[in-house]
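This week, look over our next protein:
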Amino acid sequence: MITLTINGQNHEVEVDPSTPLLWVLRDKLAMTGTKFGCGIAQCGACTVHINGMAARACVTPVSMVTDAKITTIEGLSTDGSHPVQAAWVAHEVPQCGYCQPGMMMAAAALLTQKPNPTDADIDAAITNICRCGTYPRVRAAIHSIAKT
């Protein structure tokens, strides 16, 4: 049995310690906001926060996060009022929306570390892949949060 602290709540799951966090979130805990994209930590659809830092859940074994505080898109805010979520709506960032939970998690982590990021900071931190090409809107949304 493995105990994980996710979105402020403890969850006990019976899984192999090498199981990727992504599959525990989605399959064992029904937290489907975190998406599967590539499975090799390249696309960022599975981005969550581990102790406040953006991390790719598809390659993070649960054995590595038993003492960590994990935040998923469901834990960013319960009502969509987090500044990143509000900016995403205001700037109409999503198109298909599949990559957006991971993109928002990466943006939230960036803004925690650098409240007023430059374009270079955004480019370095937001390595998530968006097939719809929403990058200019992502950048605009992040800059709008930094202004407030």
Notes: The chain has a mean pLDDT of 97. Residues 83-147 form a domain with the DNA polymerase; domain 1 fold (CATH 1.10.150.120). Residues 100-113 form the longest helix (14 residues).
